[in-house]
């Protein structure tokens, strides 16, 4: 059975990522290689990884390198640095699907995936997000309704759906097959998909 992982704000190839967020790497090359190694230490080839924004910068060749060297089926929820000229390179490879946001439910818990934390989330929903590197969340938002999957807060590794569910609700049993069905095949998520003509 495939595992489901979440990660955000890898910023592969972004020249400013190391010094601007004080990441523990000597340079961008070291950061890129460490993030790839950390990713592959957790994710197997048949797993699903949802990248919750701000994936990469660079050439089409670099995007192919990343997609070819990172394990698992990759889905991107577009971030504020994932400009059209960047995600077009990704889509051209036919190796990734891209969405504006996504939703799924686990038991009675509803999850909404967006790069930036949403200010008005529906009652009884959890917002899985990224975007904030130095802090988890703005003080004005209720911590218990959000989960930040930015690499800066998760040892620069993807985090599993089980870890998120256990953290938020203390539950251990997760029907991953049902989540995968919602992520990949629901009409709700199809309407959020980005398709370039």
Question: What's a concise summary of this model?
Answer:
With 197 residues, the protein is an alpha/beta fold. 31% of the residues lie in helices and 19% in strands. The strands form two sheets. It has a five-stranded mixed sheet with strand order 4-3-2-1-9.
Q: Could you please describe the fold and organization of this structure?
A:
This protein is an alpha/beta fold. The chain has a single domain (4-190), classed as Metallo-dependent phosphatases (Purple Acid Phosphatase, chain A, domain 2, 4-Layer Sandwich). It is built from seven helices and nine strands. Strand 2, helix 3 (60-69) and strand 3 form a beta-alpha-beta unit. The longest helix has 15 residues, at 28-42. It is globular. It starts with a strand and ends in a 7-residue tail after the last helix.
């Amino acid at each position: 059975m495939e595992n489901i992982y979440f990660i955000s704000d890898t910023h592969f190839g972004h020249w400013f990522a190391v010094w601007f967020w004080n990441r523990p790497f000597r340079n961008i090359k070291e950061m890129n290689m460490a993030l790839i190694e950390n990713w592959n230490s957790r994710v197997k080839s048949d797993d699903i990884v949802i990248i919750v924004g701000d994936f990469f910068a660079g050439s089409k060749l670099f995007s192919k390198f990343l997609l070819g060297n990172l394990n698992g089926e990759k889905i991107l929820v577009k971030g504020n640095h994932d400009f059209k000229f960047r995600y077009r390179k990704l889509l051209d490879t036919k190796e990734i699907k891209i969405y504006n946001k996504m939703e799924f439910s686990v038991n009675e818990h509803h999850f909404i995936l967006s790069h930036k934390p949403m200010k008005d989330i529906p009652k009884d929903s959890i917002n899985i997000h990224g975007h904030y590197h130095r802090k988890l969340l703005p003080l004005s938002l209720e911590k218990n309704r959000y989960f930040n999957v930015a690499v800066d807060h998760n040892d620069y590794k993807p985090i599993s759906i089980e870890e998120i569910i256990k953290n938020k609700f203390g539950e251990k049993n997760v029907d991953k097959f049902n989540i995968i069905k919602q992520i990949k095949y629901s009409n709700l998520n199809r309407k959020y998909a980005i398709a370039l003509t």
